[in-house]
Design brief:
homodimer, 42% helix, seven-stranded mixed sheet, globular, six-stranded mixed sheet, alpha+beta
Chain lengths: 512, 512
C-alpha cells in the first residue's frame, strides 16, 4: 500500500509516493511557467499544471512496485479561475501575488467601507489584503462580464484538479479559508461575505475536512495518470498546511519553520487568535489540515534569496572552491561565515531585499529594502555573510515574538527548506531565538503531509495525530547556547530599531 | 636654481626639488612609524622623522644637477613635543589624533568652562576639540611635571625641524594657528589663552609669515642633509595649506579637494567666517600660507579607505583581471562601477566606515558607521561599487554646502590624491556637486606648495599669487552634466536623511 501526495506550487509540481510508515519510495517533479501578460499580472495556466501533474503521477506510478491506494493534493492558495459546467477553464488562474488594478486598491477600499477589516477578520480569519480569491472573482465580474456569466463555478487549483480526477467539486477547508469567503469557525461559506460579493454559493465547490474521501479516480483520469480506476481521492489542503502536518505541527508548541527563497513559519492552535493585535501584525488564521486546529502563517519574502544574491554576485572564489572540492557553494559560504564571531562584529543586516513581511509595522511593505548597517573597514567577507544569516534569523525571531506576544506558545522550530541543510545556520537559529531547533528526518514535508491525509482517507491512520506519531522523526536537534543567546539578544534590541529608522527613507527612495 | 619642498606627514615624508617653473626634478620618500604605547595614544618619534628627512634630502640633492637655493617644509599639524635648550627631544611628539585621558575630556571641559567655545573660536579660529597642541602641553604639565620643568620650549614638528636645520626657533603662522594658542587675526600668540594655560610665550617658537626666510642651513645640518651651508630655510606651513597653495587655492572661489584614504577640502578666504554656524559645523579657520588669507578645512575620514576595503575583501576577480592586463585594480573597479546607472539603481552608501567628519551633526562622530541602504536582489557588483563612489561624493557635496550656507563662494574643485586619478570619479564629482572639477597638472601638491614658499623666500617669486600664476596648470577639466545633476540632487535629498535616521542606532551599536 502506497500513499500519493502531490504538491502543486506556483512554479512547479511534485508527486511522491510514501509507505504508510512515511518512507518515500518515489519522487518526480516538473516545472511550469507563471504568466505575466501585463505588469503586475501573475497567472497560471491550469491546463498546463494539470498536464504536469498527470505526467509526474504517471512517472511515480511506473516506479511503484505496489498499488497506490489513495491520493491527496497539497496546493498553492488563493489562485482562482472560472470553469464551465464541463470543468473547462474559461480564464487563467489569477494568483495570490497578482497585483492588477494597482493591487486591487479599489476593491480593497470597497471591502474596507462595506464590512471593515475587523469584521472580515473575525469571520474569515483574513486580514484584508489583495491576495484572497474573492477579489479576483470580483475583478472578473467587473471586467470580464461575459466570462463571469458563462462561469459555472469559480474554483481554486485544488478543486480544479479534484474535478479532473473525480468529477466532484470539493475543496478542502484550508484552501476554502484562503478565499476570504469562508466562515472559518462554522466551516462553511460565509453568507455575509458572499452576499456582499453578490456571489451564489453554488458557484463555489463544497468545502470539506482535509482527510475526507471526496471521490474516486475516474476512468479517463485513470488512463491519463496511470492511477487505478477507483483510487481514493482525499481532500488535501493548502501547501503550507500540508507541510506543517508533514513536520508534525498538529498543535500549539512546535512550529514549522521553512527557510527557502522566502521564510515562512506555520503556527497551529486550537482556537484562532482573532485579536486586533494579530490583525495589525497581518497574521491571518485559517483551517489547518488537522481537524479542529487552526494555522497561521508568518512570512517574509527576503530570506534565502539574499544568500543566492550574494552567491551570484560576490562568491566567485567560493564557487571555484566548491567546484574543486565537489561541495555545495552554500556550504562553503556558511563555512566562511562561521569564522566571523557571533554578532558579525556588530554588523547588522536588514534583510528586506524584496520588501518586508508580516509581523512588522507597516506589514508587507514592498518599498522596504535591505541595508547593511554598522560597516567598518575592519569587516571581512565572513562578517558580511554571517550578517546575512543573522539578519534573516533576527527577522525570524521578530516574527516568532509577534505570535508569543499574542499569547501563542512556541516551544520549538521544525526547520525545513534549503536553510535546514546548514548545521551552522540551525545552531544560529537556536542561539538567536532561544528555541530548540529540529531538523526533521524528511525533505518533502508538503507531499508527505498530503500523503498522510490520503492515508487517513484510506484508513491507514485514524487521524493526523496518529499519522504524525507513526511517521514523524527527528534527524538532528540544536539547543540554544545561553551565552550566545545573551549576546544576540543585545544585538537584536539594536536590530529592531533599524527598520523603523529607515522606513521613511525607503518611502522616499521608492518615489525617485 | 632648484627649490626644495619637504612634506612631513604622520606616516612618512617626501622631499621634492622643483624648478622655479614648477617642474619636479626629483622626488624621494620614506616611511616611519606612529607609536601607540597605550590604547588611544598616538606618538611620533621626531628623531626618526628627522633621520628620514635627512635621508630623503640627501637623495634628492644627489640627483639634482643644479644647486638647491632654498628649502621649506610642509608639516603635519598639532603634533607637539618638549625640547631642552639643545633642541633634544624630551618626550615623543603627541599627535593630533592622540586620545589619551579619554580624548582629553577633562581638559576640554576645563576650557569649555574657563573660556567657552565661542570665545576660543573668535580668538584662535579653533572649534574646541582634542586635536590642538595646547591640550598636549597641558597634559605633559599635569602628568610629567619633571619633563615639563626641564622643557626649554614646546615645539611642533615644523619648528623642531627648522631648529635642526638652522638653530632658530621659528614656526609658520599656519602651524602656530593649529596649536589653539594663536590669535589668528593679530598673528601673534594669544595671551588670553597662554595665561589660562599658564604658559610663558618664551616657551614657544616665534611665529612668522610663510615664505619668510627664517635662517640658513648650518654646517652640521649641511653635512647631514647634503644641502649647501647657507641654503636659505624658509617658513613653510601646515601640510594642507601647502597643498592648497600647490593647486593655486589662494583666494575664495576654487577650493582644494583631496581624495585619499580620507577626504579633505581646503577653502581660502580673505576674512575668516567665525560664525556660530561655522563653529557648530566644526570648521575651524587658520592662517593660510598665502599672506592675509585664511584657510578652513572640511574633512571626513571615510573616503578612499572604503574602496580599499572593497578591493581587499571583494575584488579577487578584479585583482586577477588587473594583473593580467597590467592595470591598476582601482581602474578596473571604476570601470565596473561605470556600468551601473547614475544613482546606482537607487542604492545609497553612508560612507562612515571610520566615523563621520565635519559639516554634519554631530560632527566627528566616531561611533558612526557605514551603511548600504536600499539593497535589492537586483543590485549587482557594479551598483555596489558605484554606490561607494557616489556615497563619498554625496558626503563631499554636503561638506561643500556647509561652507556655501555660511556665505563662502565655491566656484570649482581642484582635485588631488588617489581619487583624482579616475576620470570617471572626477566626472561623477562634477555631476553630483554641479561644480567645475579640475585635475591640476601636478601630483605632489604639498611639496610643490612648500617649494613655492621656498621660492618666495629665495626671491624667485614676489608672492604666492605670482608663484601660482607661474606654475599652476590644469591637466583636465570636467563640467557637470545637467541631467545627471538633477537626478543626483533628488537622490541626494534622500541620502541626507540616512545619517540622521541611523545616528541613534550607531550610538547603541557602539555600546554593545
Amino acid at each position: 500500500m502506497y500513499l500519493l501526495g502531490i504538491d502543486v506550487g506556483t512554479s512547479g509540481c511534485k508527486a511522491a509516493a510514501f509507505t504508510p510508515e512515511g518512507s518515500m519510495v518515489a519522487l518526480v517533479q516538473a516545472e511550469y511557467a507563471e504568466y505575466s501578460p501585463k505588469t503586475g499580472w501573475i497567472e497560471l495556466n491550469v491546463n498546463e499544471v494539470w498536464d504536469k501533474v498527470k505526467a509526474c503521477t504517471r512517472s511515480v506510478v511506473r516506479t511503484c512496485s505496489d498499488r497506490i491506494n489513495a491520493v491527496a493534493l497539497s496546493v498553492l492558495g488563493e489562485a482562482v479561475l472560472p470553469v464551465d459546467r464541463y470543468g473547462a477553464c474559461l480564464y487563467p488562474a489569477i494568483t495570490a501575488y497578482d497585483a492588477r488594478e494597482q493591487g486591487y486598491r479599489a476593491l480593497l477600499q470597497w471591502w474596507d467601507e462595506k464590512l471593515g477589516p475587523t469584521r472580515i477578520y473575525s469571520i474569515t480569519g483574513v486580514p484584508l489584503n489583495s491576495m484572497p480569491s474573492v477579489h479576483k472573482i470580483q475583478w472578473i465580474r467587473d471586467n470580464l462580464p461575459e466570462v463571469y456569466r458563462r462561469a459555472w463555478k469559480f474554483v481554486c487549483v485544488e478543486d480544479f484538479l479534484i474535478y479532473k480526477l473525480t468529477g466532484e467539486t470539493v475543496i478542502s477547508y484550508p484552501l476554502a479559508a484562503r478565499t476570504m469567503m469562508m466562515d472559518i469557525r462554522k466551516k462553511r461559506w460565509a453568507h455575509e461575505i458572499l452576499d456582499l460579493a453578490d456571489l451564489d454559493e453554488d458557484k463555489l465547490s463544497t468545502p470539506t475536512q482535509s482527510g475526507n474521501v471526496v471521490g474516486e479516480v475516474g476512468s479517463e483520469a485513470a488512463e491519463e495518470t496511470g492511477l487505478a480506476t477507483g483510487t481514493e481521492v482525499v481532500a488535501g489542503g493548502h501547501d503550507q498546511s500540508c507541510a506543517a502536518l508533514g513536520v508534525g505541527v498538529t498543535d500549539e508548541g512546535p512550529i514549522m519553520d521553512s527557510t527557502g527563497t522566502v521564510e515562512c513559519i506555520g503556527v497551529a492552535v486550537k482556537e484562532p487568535v482573532l485579536t486586533q493585535q494579530m490583525l495589525k501584525a497581518g497574521h491571518g488564521w485559517y483551517c489547518h489540515t488537522v481537524k479542529d486546529r487552526y494555522l497561521s502563517l508568518g512570512f517574509f519574502p527576503s530570506a534565502g534569496i539574499i544568500l543566492r544574491w550574494y552567491r551570484d554576485n560576490f562568491a566567485e572564489k567560493e564557487k571555484e572552491l566548491a567546484a574543486e572540492e565537489g561541495r555545495d557553494v552554500y556550504d562553503v559560504l556558511t563555512d566562511v561565515a562561521s569564522t566571523s564571531p557571533p554578532g558579525a562584529a556588530k554588523l547588522l543586516l536588514l534583510p528586506h531585499f524584496v520588501g518586508s513581511g508580516t509581523g512588522k509595522q507597516p506589514i508587507l511593505n514592498m518599498n522596504s529594502r535591505g541595508a547593511f548597517v554598522g560597516l567598518s573597514v575592519f569587516h571581512r567577507k565572513s562578517d558580511i555573510i554571517r550578517a546575512i544569516l543573522e539578519g534573516i534569523t533576527f527577522e525570524l525571531r521578530q516574527l516568532i515574538e509577534t505570535f508569543e506576544r499574542c499569547g501563542v506558545c512556541i516551544s520549538e522550530l521544525r526547520s525545513i527548506g534549503g536553510g535546514a541543510k546548514s548545521p551552522f545556520w540551525l545552531q544560529l537559529k537556536a542561539d538567536v531565538t532561544n528555541k530548540r531547533i529540529v531538523a526533521p528526518n524528511i525533505t518533502e514535508a508538503a507531499t508527505l503531509g498530503a500523503a498522510l491525509l490520503a492515508g487517513i482517507g484510506a484508513g491507514a491512520f485514524k487521524d493526523c495525530h496518529e499519522a504524525v506519531a507513526k511517521v514523524y522523526r527527528e534527524k538532528s536537534v540544536y539547543q540554544p547556547n545561553p551565552a550566545n543567546f545573551t549576546l544576540y539578544s543585545k544585538q537584536y534590541e539594536v536590530y529592531k530599531e533599524v527598520y523603523p529608522a529607515l522606513v521613511h527613507v525607503y518611502e522616499k527612495l521608492a518615489l525617485l
